Amino acid sequence: MQVFFFRGGRNYGNRPYFPAHDKDLGVEDVLAPFIAQFYEDRAPPPLVLISHAVPEQALIAEALAVRAGRKVELLTPQRGEKKRLVEHARGNAREAHARRVAESASQAELLRQLAECFGLESPPDRIEVYDNSHIQGTNAIGGMIVAGPEGFRKNAYRKFNMKSDITPATITG
């Protein structure tokens, strides 16, 4: 999925999304729940352009309108400038998908080499890296980053505040 953000006719950027789904589902069957989840915690705009008509499109538009407190229209444009915008978004989505596939292949190769280097039976599914820091013995904090077959998993990162009795070292000389 590729989402473009327009306000007042100006493009304020875009972002790719890669929703997990059953490979047998059609675009329409993935797009409908994506729209509902995407606008679950943000106000929908008055007009949402989509590449494919979705099941229950009128019902989804009505639910978004209730959430926004105003009319919201889901439109699958067939021609004109709006159709060109949707086609541009689809092109960006294809490019983002190709980049992700290439990154995934290189990540899989790195993990395969790591497994070979450490004599593992198979590449690891999860790698956790921890770092503990402090400021001259005070304010101890720990951090964890996580990586896996799809790359870094930023949503799995953690920060830990630590209580300790670390005594600062003194160097005399």
Description:
- The protein has 173 residues and is an alpha+beta fold.
- The protein folds into 2 domains: 2-118, no CATH class; 127-161, no CATH class.
- It has helices at residues 27-38, 57-68, 80-118; strands at residues 2-7, 10-16, 47-49, 73-75, 127-135, 138-148, 151-152, 158-161.
- Strands 5, 6, 7 and 8 form a 4-stranded antiparallel sheet that branches. A two-stranded antiparallel ribbon has the order 1-2.
- The model has no long low-confidence stretch (mean pLDDT 88).
Largest sheet entry:
4 strands, antiparallel
Arithmetic mean of pLDDT: 88
Which descriptor suits the 3D outline?
elongated
| Structural Rg | 23 Å
The count of β-strands is 8
Order of helices and strands: EEHEHEHEEEE
Residue share in β-strands = 25-35%
Measured distance between first and last alpha carbons: 63 Å
Percentage of residues in helical conformation: 25-40%
Uncertain spans: none
Number of helices: 3
- Protein structure class: alpha+beta
**What is the number of domains?**
2
Name the descriptors:
173 residues; alpha+beta; 2 domains; 4-stranded antiparallel beta sheet; two-stranded antiparallel ribbon; 3 helices; 36% helix
Short description:
The protein has three helices and eight strands, in the order E-E-H-E-H-E-H-E-E-E-E. The chain is α+β, with helices and mostly antiparallel strands and 173 residues long.
